[in-house]
Amino acid sequence: MATPLVAFQGERGSFSEEAAYKLLGRKIRVLPCETFTAIFESVTSGKANYCLVPIENTLAGAVYENFDLLQANNLHIVSEVSLRIVHNLIALPGTARKDVRQVYSHPVALAQCRRFFAQNPKIERITYYDTAGSVKMLAERRPPGAAAIASRIAAEVYDARILKTHLEDHRENYTRFFLLSKTARVSPKANKISIVFSTRNLPGALYKCLSVFALRDIDLTKLESRPLHGRPWEYFFYIDFVGNVKEKRCKRALAHLGEVTNFLRVLGCYESAKR
Amino acid sequence: MATPLVAFQGERGSFSEEAAYKLLGRKIRVLPCETFTAIFESVTSGKANYCLVPIENTLAGAVYENFDLLQANNLHIVSEVSLRIVHNLIALPGTARKDVRQVYSHPVALAQCRRFFAQNPKIERITYYDTAGSVKMLAERRPPGAAAIASRIAAEVYDARILKTHLEDHRENYTRFFLLSKTARVSPKANKISIVFSTRNLPGALYKCLSVFALRDIDLTKLESRPLHGRPWEYFFYIDFVGNVKEKRCKRALAHLGEVTNFLRVLGCYESAKR
Lengths: 275, 275
Known about the structure:
2 copies of one chain form a homodimer.
Chain A: E1 5-9, H1 15-24, E2 29-33, H2 36-44, E3 50-57, E4 61-62, H3 64-72, E5 76-84, E6 88-91, E7 102-105, H4 107-111, H5 114-119, E8 124-127, H6 131-141, E9 146-150, H7 152-157, E10 161-164, E11 174-181, E12 192-199, H8 205-214, E13 220-227, E14 235-242, H9 248-260, E15 261-270
Parallel strand pairs in A: 1-2, 1-3, 7-8, 7-9
Antiparallel strand pairs in A: 3-4, 3-11, 5-11, 6-9, 6-10, 12-14, 12-15, 13-14
């Protein structure tokens, strides 16, 4: 393949773009899209080679919309990356830290930097639709005394400067992303499998599903439930477990799971992200 | 107790208010609050007797913020109610259905009525912060040719009229609410228990937790996971199961669960909602 085109949600300089570089290096082309639906569509239509979707944050939890989109679309997880979310105070050249009167960012980012605002009570918080978008706005409109909170890539993309780093209150702030492709591919290093299933209407149904892993000493790393539309109070379960689809015990566990589920799909088998 | 005061999130006439009447009848006083945090606080401080919190919708899934607030606060689930979400087209007296040019509502309600807008392409959708709040706005500002999408209670509260009912695309649209109180209370009819726990760091930990129920033929009705702050990729699990805390097998299951968890709390034992 020539230089791959990778779609992500948000403006240029988003945390998704930072994650894409961490996973794939800097020799990629990027396609910023407005919505999560649009990034799935860009890969389905063949416009982009991959999309990178945030799936879970250690503070905010699962990105539920993307679980539903994994189910609604027929894309495959080919890789995973975990990015530490570092919030930076960013301003244009010429604005020093002492000049900052207003700080623009997405409300979630502002809420994750409470300590900074408590220590700087004269600085006004202004909510904006996007973290990287607030740096873009600084570059376009050049409001005096203004800064933004965003990723280090946003500073780079818009020729701005990082005045202070690590504004976030909690250091244990990570986001996991999946790299999705139209064609399934299992790397030789793949050691993690993601699946989605719905249980049969039996007593102890979920327990029976988990037993196919436990009885084979297969470790689960994640379980998420989402509503099944049209069947009130029934659920799809998303599970990540350690293994490779070519391993015998994983093949057997999946066959066994097929016996006790109504619906089962392997979403991908990929190399686990390093922390 | 005299007439109980029940706090809920949103403006007067919200679906939460409709659910409160369904559960407790019309002889209650209501306290509308701006945020979910505020309704928990109103009960903790003793200002309100109860709060009614939406916990799960059959289309949108769990209301994750309220799972986190159940964990962060020390309130008890004393009852449960399930409300069918019926979206109504509501206008002030004098506005006929043929006069309607704009429809105001919360973006989620607008998105759940796609078929109505497809059939009425000349009607403009205008997003507003709240369903009931959009009816309140009609009553206050009286914009010509305007209607709103909201609960039937909103029409009643603001002296407006229902022009058309069942605008929702999916009939299987229900929201479950919990009634929370400062003091635990187990009704004689209680047949459902809600708990939250975190697993010990063992292989097959979640499987072991579910086995305490499966081995005693206790049915689970719900499992939800939420991130554990400060411990990346570890989770709190929320489980609902059928039973009463006074039953021997439930007492034994909870004692057994205590052996295999780091943390365990019973959130309440209450009568299951009728569909």
